[in-house]
Specification:
It comes from Lacrimispora xylanisolvens. Keywords: Viral genome packaging, Viral release from host cell. By secondary structure, this protein is of the alpha+beta class. Helices cover about 45% and strands about 15% of the residues. Strands 1-2 form a two-stranded antiparallel sheet.
Length: about 180
């Protein structure tokens, strides 16, 4: 069974910037509250047909652009695992120590992607690196190291199960 017209609009809009709330409000313009759109878009993303469509379109885009997840991870790794000593050295000048910027030939080629910019400043050459913390966070999220939400799955017996039984089970009790 194919997607409904609204599901297709939602999925196509979602693929633009991966903002599900915005995509839902485009597909359903009568929805004005972000909270409502966020809740409904979350449910929409769990719909098997919508999920399959989005995954297929993402794979198609990967082939078309020739940009893969591996490529993105490698670029993030350049930023995340670069060290300032890849780009500068500390030299002993007798009475003081000086920071010496390495030539690009001396810098590791696989780390150059970590550089956000180089400029001549008031105190000499300044090297600005991309955000290492953000790169490591993105890598960690991709690897599933961080969980923003608790996922609970299973089935419940509708009227028999009480909140106390659920809490007991979560604590490791027999229920």
């Amino acid at each position: 069974m194919a997607l409904t017209a609204k599901q297709k609009i939602f999925a196509d809009e979602y693929l633009i910037d991966l903002n599900a709330t915005r995509a839902y409000k485009v597909a359903y313009p009568k929805v004005k509250k972000d909270e409502t759109a966020a809740a409904n878009s979350s449910r929409m993303l769990r719909n098997a047909k919508v999920e399959d469509y989005i995954q297929k379109r993402m794979k198609d885009r990967e082939k078309r652009t020739e940009i893969t997840q591996d490529m993105v991870l490698k670029e993030l790794a350049k930023i995340g695992f670069a060290d300032v000593t890849d780009f500068v050295s500390i030299e002993d000048k007798g009475a003081y120590k000086a920071v010496q910027v390495k030539t690009t030939d001396e810098m590791p080629g696989d780390k150059l992607g970590a550089i956000a910019g180089i400029k001549e400043g008031a105190n000499g050459i300044e090297i600005k690196l991309n955000d290492k913390g953000k790169a490591l966070e993105l890598i960690g999220r991709h690897l599933g190291m961080f969980k923003d939400k608790l996922e609970v799955s299973g089935t419940l017996e509708t009227e028999k199960t009480k909140l106390d039984d659920l809490i007991n089970q979560m604590r490791g009790g027999d229920g």
